[in-house]
């Protein structure tokens, strides 16, 4: 780990590496920008374009989730096997969403 | 070569080595978060199912009024902001809450980064900011719940059929029995989903405080690594991740 750092500063009588936080702040600005865009979409697109709005929201949410998991939780830096161990089971969520989108409407026919 | 290949999996899973190059604690945290993701998905998908089983409001948005005959438009329900009583500020407060939680996620990741550098003072600083962000979020949510339960200035007149008799009554706010904003399941899901998330934030704050205390006492410095900060960091980011979905599917859609 220590080899990643080449600049050190003295702090409380000890040598401590300088922080490397460029990537973290970049991710923060991206997340903030997407959230602001969501607000813009929520209040500028007319109410009758509901399906378009929902699709934009869903895509933006998935992009935000990818950034949080990939960068903040550092999943994209883990080994391939750990990455897929976490990602592949999420397909069950997609399955439940699809199943209820296709057949869930019958719940109101009782 | 053959004996080497046979011996390797044994060494890999019998301790000493770390499968998937992640420590036991980190691996278990990931698997726990995966199972927790299923709980939250179950709740949000059930919300979607019940919502679309109810009729949607199809009139003009300016003429929208609360009624238990159709599902409410969320941005017309959540438009109150503390100290701005009487103003219509749709989603402003919940947007602020989203920002607070994302920002506390950033300070958490900065604490993890400082832990990699074994910079005790920096870890302390960023952990403290994260705890502060978490407590601010919880306070905001308490205010939001309070407002949701108390209700708007003018009541909603709901018509219900009780024992075959039509009854009309004025309703302020919502709880698990009445709901001025729309059909009863709307209030139930609000309390359950945001409550379940709030419980997670609460336990996250408690974990952060414990780890912050340990950092201050120099426990991880003596241990030689700050992996515990990384593990509670994973949990904290997950809480933020869930809020991103709650924000979209409960408030925006």
Please provide a written account of the structure.
The complex is a heterodimer of chains A (110) and B (253). Chain A has 2 domains: 76 residues; 32 residues, no CATH class. Chain A contains 4 helices and 2 strands; from the N terminus they run E-E-H-H-H-H. The longest helix of chain A is centred in the first third of the chain and has 23 residues. Chain B has a single domain, classed as Up-down Bundle (Four Helix Bundle (Hemerythrin (Met), subunit A)). Chain B has a two-stranded antiparallel ribbon. In chain B, helix 4 packs antiparallel against helix 5, helix 4 packs antiparallel against helix 8 and helix 5 runs antiparallel to helix 6. Chain B is elongated, with a radius of gyration of 24 Å. The mean pLDDT of chain B is 89. The chains are: A mainly alpha (110), B mainly alpha (253). At the A-B interface, helix 1, helix 2, helix 3 and helix 4 of A face helix 2, helix 4, helix 5 and helix 8 of B.
């Amino acid at each position: 780990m220590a080899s990643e750092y080449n600049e050190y500063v003295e702090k409380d009588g000890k040598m401590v590496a300088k922080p490397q936080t460029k990537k973290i702040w970049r991710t923060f600005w991206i997340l903030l920008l997407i959230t602001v865009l969501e607000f813009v979409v929520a209040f500028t697109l007319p109410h009758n374009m509901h399906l378009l709005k929902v699709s934009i929201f869903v895509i933006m949410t998935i992009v935000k989730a990818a950034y949080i998991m990939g960068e903040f939780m550092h999943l994209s830096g883990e080994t391939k096997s750990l990455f897929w161990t976490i990602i592949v089971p999420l397909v069950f969520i997609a399955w439940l969403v699809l199943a209820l989108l296709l057949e869930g409407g019958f719940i109101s026919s009782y | 070569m053959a004996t080497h290949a046979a011996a390797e999996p044994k060494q890999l899973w019998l301790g000493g080595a770390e499968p998937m190059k992640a420590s036991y604690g980190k691996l278990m945290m990931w698997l726990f978060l995966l199972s927790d993701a299923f709980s939250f998905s179950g709740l949000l998908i059930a919300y979607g199912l019940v919502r679309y089983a109810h009729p949607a409001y199809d009139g003009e948005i300016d003429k929208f009024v609360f009624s238990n005959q159709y599902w409410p438009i969320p941005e017309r329900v959540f438009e109150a902001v503390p100290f701005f009583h009487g103003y219509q500020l749709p989603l402003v407060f919940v947007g602020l809450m989203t920002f607070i939680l994302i920002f506390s996620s950033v300070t958490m990741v900065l604490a993890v980064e400082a832990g990699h550098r074994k910079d005790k003072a920096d870890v302390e600083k960023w952990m403290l900011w994260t705890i502060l962000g978490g407590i601010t979020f919880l306070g905001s949510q308490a205010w939001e719940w309070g407002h949701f339960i108390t209700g708007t200035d003018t009541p909603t007149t709901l018509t219900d059929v009780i024992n075959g008799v039509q009854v009309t009554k004025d309703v302020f706010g919502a709880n698990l029995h009445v709901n001025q904003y729309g059909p009863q399941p709307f209030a139930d899901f609000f309390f359950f989903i945001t409550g379940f998330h709030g419980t997670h934030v609460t336990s996250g704050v408690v974990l952060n405080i414990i780890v912050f205390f340990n950092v201050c006492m120099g426990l991880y410095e003596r241990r030689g690594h700050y992996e515990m900060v990384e593990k509670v960091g994973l949990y904290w980011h997950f809480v933020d991740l869930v809020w991103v979905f709650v924000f979209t599917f409960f408030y925006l859609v």
